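--- STAGE predict ---
source: upstream dedup step, 1 unique chain passed
mode: sequence only
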Amino acid sequence: MKKIPITDKISELDIAIKAAKKAEKVILEIYHGDFKTSQKKDNSPVTDADIKSNKVIKEILAQTGHSILSEEDKDDQSRLSMNTVWIVDPLDGTSDFINKTGEFTVMIALIKNKKPILGVIGWPTEKTLFVAQNGKGAYKYANNKWEKLSVTKVREFSKCRVVGSRHHLSDKEKLFIKRLNIKEFASIGSSLKVGKISSGEAEAYITTTNKMKEWDSAASHCIISEAGGKMTDMLGNNITYNNKEVSHKNGILVTNGLIHSKIIKEFKKLE
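--- STAGE serialize ---
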């Protein structure tokens, strides 16, 4: 793999990339074989791949000495006394993994003073990485080369391409998207929705659910910000990390930045 074109890399960047790539390998081995699926207490699915990916990632990230908040571990909240923590979703899009859509990812973020300063998203089936470091830009690695990411300059709703959840799109969201006069909508799994906006292949991702957690957005948050876009909750509030309560209560809005405040304004009319 070619070296990422980021100068002044923080040491954690290479460690996070290494962890994501090793996790991808483990996930793909399980994906192409037989695997067990079970239900968590909240009725969400979990597979062998979630568990094994988590183990591999934690072993690699442990060398940094930072606390780790992971979807697949019990949170003892000792992280709350730390300024710098890892936030990990070892397999984002478990339903897509089970349904064999190929649209699942590995998400690793480093948080400092409640903000993401590094984000790595691995897309195992496409051998693709999305990587960003605070102040250094966002990059995508595919077909053996790095490409700098930037969002589009689209400002009109009628020309916007919106992406949303394949499994969790609510009637409220469908109505709101229709109300915005948005013609083009695609359902996509996992954090790939934010990958699309960061790559200039879509303009917005709208979700009003209160079920999203910090590990669902942390890595994406760094990537979209560095690609020139924006992520807030649906009311326009900044999203912070390493909080006691890890749920995003007011949904998430991700855009190219230019249409962000207009969408929030329209959404507030519904509330």
